[in-house]
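#onboarding

Welcome to the new folks! Below is a worked example of what a typical request in this channel looks like: someone posts a single protein sequence, and someone else replies with the predicted structure as tokens. Don't worry about understanding the tokens yet, we'll cover that in week two.

Example request:
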Amino acid sequence: MTGKRPKLLILINTLQSGGAERVVSLLLEHLKDEFEIHLGLYSRIIDYVIPPEISILDLKQPLKQNKVIRFLKLPFISHTVYRYCRNNKIRTSVAFLYRPCYINALMKSCWGYKGKVIMCERTHQTTMQQSHSAIYRMFSKFMVRFSYKRADLVLANSYAMQTDLIENFRIRTPVRVIYNPIDLNFIKTHKDEAPDFVFDKGVFHFVNVGGFRTEKNHLLLLQAFFILKNLPCKLLIVGGGVLEEVLRQKVADLGMQDKVVFCGFDKNPFKYVSRSDCFVLSSDVEGFPNVLIEALACAKPVISTDCSSGPRELLAPDTDLHHRAINNYEIGEYGILTPVNDVIALAASMRKMYEDSSLRSRYAQKAAGRAEQFDVDEIKQYFHVAFTGF
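Example response:
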């Protein structure tokens, strides 16, 4: 690339395992020749490879901290970011996840940052807030409005999320939809690596990939799988997190130690997904789940809860995006959708996928073509436009 590259700060909590973090890692790699990228980390926890030419601003903040203290420190942290942008002549600051978005907003409102501020929303705020107290919901809604009012542009990763921000949070800042990218080339070149787990012949393998957090609702998945435990099936769970001991105890309580396999966090989960028979997502809320696209890229049939937002847009794109599966599972164009937090419906959909080989075959044939629409080489151009002008 000739000429001077525009400078860009990408601000995120960490580069620990997660959907937003994986998107940022892809952007670092695929936009580094077009931008001079600076990476701001609230806490320096890194699971993904960072290109050596990326400059890092380490804010050195502990992730586990009293919420009041954490909130009171935000103006001072935002001043650190402001000084960094001023000293390095950075004219565009992009924030992923809510805490960096608050920092971005404070940098503009408190310290007079004159550059462009872009906020990247990665979850369906209304659904996410429902599980919290009334006080938390009120505060969170205020902070979302406060932050996004000060943005030049908001990027959502699904149309359901865009609608939520405009209708329920009255966001007047332009909200543009850019879907999460995936790295198809990485998946294709790594999915055949040998996994640590030995896949038994004659056994149907369900697989799930994700962090062990409440909103991922792995307990629902375990309860649904318990209904199927007498079938020749196993469940592989790839990931880790704070709820791991809770989940392991649940497996023990249900007597499924020989049926459920914890594979741990792996930078290459595709070697497990590609050898399994069906991918299952049991979340209560998502933004736009990368793991579903990645499972499709591995040519796997998928089942997902019909949560807000993302799965319906991905698996049944021609249906009404406001519609939700309520009483039973729904056969979508690219996968099965089930009601949120419905054990019986999820178990029934898993049994359906186990028993119906023609349905699995039909989904497998369509999967790769659907995934290609989200390849980073297709999606990065939209981020480039968003980062350079509106």
